[in-house]
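Data availability (excerpt). The following record was deposited with the supplementary files.
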Amino acid sequence: MQLFSKLRWQVILIAGLIAAVNPTVSQANPGAAKPVLEIPSPRYDAGTHWEGEVVSHTYQVKNTGSEELQILSVKPG
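Predicted structure:
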């Protein structure tokens, strides 16, 4: 049961990161420079594990935009 809680928290964290950097500021000018968050492999299948077993995964996060990407806060989704 702990494994699923940890995995759920990781998924919530990634969803929060995506929501936190949603580029809504520059919608008035679509050609304006803006940060763009890219997660090349957003899904991860941890497989089957025993309760209490530690499972970890590192997500690669990249800014492919032309402005600095600032993650100011993260909230679980």
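Summary of structural features: The mean pLDDT is 75.
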